[in-house]
Amino acid sequence: MKSTSAAPAIPRPSRRKLLSHAMRSWQLYAFLLPTLLYFGIFHYGPLYGAQIAFRDYLGALGIWGSPWVGLKNFERFFNSAYFVNLLSNTVILSVLMLVFSFPVPVIFALMLNQLGNQRYKRIVQTVSYAPHFISTVVFVGMLFLFTSPSVGIVNILVSRLGGPRIYYMGSAAWFRPVYVLSDIWQETGWGAIIYLAALSAINPELYEAATIDGATKFQRILHIDIPAILPTVTILLVLRAGAIMSLGFEKAFLMQSSLNLEVSEIISTYVYKVGLQGAQFSFASAVGLFNSVANLVLLLIVNRVARALGETSLW
Amino acid sequence: MRRTRGDVIFDAANYTLVSVFFLLILYPLYFIIIASLSNPDFVNIGAITFWPRGITLEGYQRTLREVSVWRGYRNTILYTVLGTTINVSLTMTAGYALSRKELAGRSVIMRLIVFTMLFSGGLIPTYLIVKGLGMTNTLWAMVIPNAVSAWNLIIARTYLQQSIPQELLEASLVDGCSYARFFWEVAVPLSGAIIAVLALLYSVAHWNSFFTGLIYLQDYSKYPLQLILRDILLGYQTAGAADDAKTVQEMQRIADLMKYALIIVASFPVMVLYPFLQRYFVKGVMVGAIKG
Fold first, then answer.
1. For residue A312, what is the nearest residue in chain B, using CA coordinates?
2. Is A155:A147 a contact under the CB 8 Å cutoff?
3. Residues pairing with A68 in the sheet
4. pLDDT, tens digit (0-9, with 9 covering 90-100), for A24-62
5. Domain residue limits at A282
C-alpha cells in the first residue's frame, strides 16, 4: 500500500489528471451499461411486474391500472384441487432425483479416478459427457423411440426375455422411473467433471503414505478421496436441495401426455399452460411467485442447515 | 505401488463396473447411428443390435427433402450466431468492468446480479415484459431476453480478475492508455480461452433451445430447429389422414425412418465439434468451480 502523504516528494496528481482518470473509468461504466440495462429490464422488470399476482390483470389497463385483489389469486390456487397434486408431483420428482440421480456422478468420479489406464479413463470420460449435449427435444424423442411398445429396442429386448411389452411413455407409473433413470444416463458424466477436478487436486504423497501404512484401495477411497470431495459434494447438494421446487420445464413438458398427466404435471408446466395457453396471467403469476418464494426459502433453510452442521455453506 | 489381493479384486470389479456403465452410455448413441443407416423394417422388428442391416440412406434423403427441417436449421443458425455474438460481447465487456476494483459499487452490482439466480419474477411477468417491448414473434425474442447469463458473467469476471494483473492495467493507465483500449489490446487477446468457453456454452444453449421459441414465437416459418424436431419426433404433427391402411403403414414407416436420421442431422453440428471442443467445456466448468 502506497500513501501519498508519506511520500511528499511525489507531487499530487493535477486536476487535469484526475479528470482524465474519471473520464477513463467512465468507460468502464459504459462497458457495464448494456448488461445493467439487461438485468434491469429482463430480471428486475419481471420482479416488479410480479405484482400482477396481486391484481386482476387486464391487458387494456396494464399493470398499474388493473384492479388490486390482494391474495385472491393465491387463495384460489391454494384451495384448488390441483394444488396438492402439483406440489407433490414437483417435490416427489425432485426428491427422487436428489436421492437417485445426485449420488451417481460422485460414485462414477470415484470409480473413474481409480482406473490405472489413463487412456481408457479419458475415453470413458469423453463418451460420458456426450449425452449432456443432446437437446431435451432430441433426448425425449430418443426415449419415445427406444421405449415404443411396437418398435422400441427396450420392449423388443424385454419381450424376448419373456417380459410384457409396456408403453412406458404413456404410463403414469413409469413416468418417474423413466425421468430419473434417463437423467442418470444423460448427466452422470457431466456431473462427474467437478468431482474429478477435486480428486485430481489430492496430493499423491497422501496415497503413498497410506499405502505404506497398509491401506487397501478401498480404505484409501474412504479416508482420502471422500473427505477430499466432501466440500464440493456439500455445496452441490445444498444447491440441488434448494432447487427442489424449480424443476426444469422442458423434459417434463415433452414427456407429458394425457395418459401420465396425473404425475407429470409439475408447477412449471402448469404455469405455462394456465398462463400462456390459458391467458390467466394473474393467476399463473401467483402460482409462479409462490414457486419462487418457496424456492428461495428452501435454499436459505438448506444453506443454514449445512452451515449449522459445520460443513461448507454457500455464503 | 504394492498391490494386495484385495486391491486386485477391487480393480477387477471397478474396471468391470466402469465398463458396463460405459457401454450403457455408448450403446444408445451407437444404436441411433446404425438405426439411421438401416432399413426401418429391420429396425422395427428388433433385428438391429450391433451392425446396420439393409443399409440405406433413405432416412437421410427423406430428412433432407423436408423443407421444414431446412428452414428450422436456417433459423437456428441465425439465432445461434446472432445470439452468441450478443451474449459474448455483453458478458466480456461487463465481466471486464466488474473485474476492475476501481469500479465503484462493484460488489453491490454483483450482488444484484447473483440475486437474479436465486429469485425470479417468474415466467408470466417476463413474458409480459417481452411482449410489452414488441419483441414476441420476432427474432429479438430469441436473443435479447437471455442476453447475459449471470453464471457465465461470474465465470468471465473471475477469469479476467485472475488472468489480467491489476499492475499491468495500472501501468498502462499511467502511460495514458484508456480502459477501452486496454480491453481491446490487452484483455481480449489474453482471454482467448474464456471467450471460447463462453461462445461454446452460449451457442450450444441456443442450438438446443426449445422453450424460448415455444413461448415467444407464433409463426411456423420462424420456428427454430428444436420446435420442428418436436413436431416430427414427438408426433405433434399428425401424419395426415389416410383411409388406406397400407398408406398409414407406409407413412408410419417413413416417419420412423426419418426419426433416427433426423436425430443425427439435428445433433450433427454439436456432435462433430464435440470431440474438439469438450475440453473447453470442461475448462468452463473448472473456471466456474473456482468461484463455487
1. B292
2. yes
3. A55
4. 678 889 999 999 999 999 999 999 999 999 998 887 787
5. 73-308
